[in-house]
Structure formats: C-alpha cells, structure tokens
Design goal:
The chain is mainly β. The protein has one helix and five strands. A five-stranded mixed beta sheet has the order 2-1-5-4-3.
Amino acid sequence: MLCRRVYGADHDDPDPGLLLNRTYAELVGGPLDITGWTPDEVETGVALATELGQFGPDGRALYDPHPGEVRFLGPGVSCRFYHCGDTP
C-alpha cells in the first residue's frame, strides 16, 4: 500500500504516496486522504470525479464503507471504501 498513489495527488508529484501524518480510506486503485473528516462523513462515503467510469469524464465513482467494518481513528489507513457504482 505504501507505494500507491493517493487519489487527488498531482499527476507529476514526485512523491504521490501516503504521508505519515494523514488519515486515509483505502480504495481499489489507491488511498483517499480523509484527514479531518468526521465519523459521519466517513459513514456516508464519497463520490469521486473520474474519467474512467460509466459516465466518462463528467461522471463520478461512488464508494461507501461496509456497515460494521472496523474503523480506526488517527493517522494511517483507517477504513476501506468499496466501489458501489457510478453516477453522472
């Protein structure tokens, strides 16, 4: 996981990986920086801009946590978000 690119990192960032003082949700395809998110925000999941989804460059990929899955607070990977569909 430490070699993966963080979602939202600049394409030319020389070090697009995880930072020790940040909190992440693991996504298929790379981690998402969720530093500062509240537990309620983590529970509702996220719609990420994507060029590769069902709806092309204007679409969003939807990710949600699984109910009852353990979540950790603080730096490091605290939870996993699972792809649950795409939206325009």
